[in-house]
Specification:
Distance between the termini: 43 Å
Number of helices: 5
Helix content: 25-40%
Structural class: alpha+beta
Largest sheet: 3 strands, antiparallel
Number of domains: 2
Number of strands: 5
CATH topology of the largest domain: Arc Repressor Mutant, subunit A
CATH class of the largest domain: Mainly Alpha
Radius of gyration: 16 Å
CATH superfamily of the largest domain: Winged helix-like DNA-binding domain superfamily/Winged helix DNA-binding domain
Shape: globular
CATH architecture of the largest domain: Orthogonal Bundle
Length: 168
């Protein structure tokens, strides 16, 4: 495993990758940092994949809507992976609710609740790339974000400002 530090306008992040995919992107100090544990052997070395991930984040934080991210390989339960796949379908600058995600999973034959979806969203190991910050409460309020609500608000405002400043 390889890792680098990325200095974003929202705070310092740690990016972790295998030889073939990004497996982690956390804001320092966030809940569930490192998922189920960081590997004992990790090299703090830039790799082509981590360079690609940093470039994607540079584009994102510069106020642009970047194209597809590098290869992602989050590790989780089958339920978590299903939730994280739905998160990747939320368009840039859009939001959805935990309840809406639960309804989509139920329609796909996965019996769940908004609370269970919220738990899976909160354990997303690849912040920003898998946009868990785009999930809000049913009332439209900002709720739960492993890196804290100020960072969630920053990310949503960044995306909103990009959309409102784009030429029509």
């Amino acid at each position: 495993m390889f890792s680098v530090t990325y200095h974003s306008p929202a705070g310092r992040m740690v990016l972790m990758a295998s030889d073939t995919a990004l497996v982690g992107a956390w804001f320092e100090g966030q809940k569930h940092f490192g998922g189920s544990g960081l590997p004992a052997t990790m090299h703090h070395t830039e790799t082509p994949l981590l360079t690609e991930a940093r470039a994607w984040l540079d584009e994102y934080f510069s106020g642009q809507s970047p194209d597809d991210p590098p290869m992602l390989a989050p590790t989780g339960t089958p339920f978590q992976l299903a939730v994280w796949q739905l998160l990747r379908q939320i368009p840039y600058g859009s939001t959805t609710t935990y309840g809406t995600l639960a309804t989509r999973l139920i329609s796909a034959g996965i019996h769940t609740s908004a609370r269970a979806v919220g738990s899976a969203v909160g354990r997303n190991p690849i912040s920003v790339f898998i946009p868990c910050h785009r999930v809000i409460g049913a009332s439209g309020s900002l709720t739960g974000f492993a890196a804290g609500l100020p960072i969630k608000s920053f990310l949503l405002q960044l995306e909103e400002n990009v959309l409102t400043s784009s030429p029509s």
